[in-house]
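Let us work through a complete example step by step.
Step 1: write down the sequence.
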Amino acid sequence: MGPVQQRAPSDQRSFPVPTDTLVLACRLSGLSLTELWWEYLALGGTRSPAELAARMAPGHPWPALEDLVLSAAADEALISGGLPPLVRSSAG
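Step 2: predict the structure and record it as C-alpha cells.
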C-alpha cells in the first residue's frame, strides 16, 4: 500500500476567498481578528497575526492553501454560532 495522498475538498469552492466575505464571516460569528488567527493557527495555518491583518485588507492575497485554512477557521466560527458556512462562487 502506497502513501496516503490528501485530496482537495470535494465541493467546488474557489480560492482565494474574497476579503469582504472573510470580514463578514468574522462580524457574523463575533470572531475578533485575534480569535480568527488563533483558530487559523490551530488548523495548521502558518502566517503571523500581522500577515492576517494585511490579508484582511483588499489586495493582499495569500497562497491557496493558506486561504483554505483561513476559510476553514471562519467556517468553524460560523457553524459553531449556528450559521451556515462561507459560500464561494465557482467563478472565483
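Step 3: interpret the result. Residues 1-14 have pLDDT under 50 and may be disordered.
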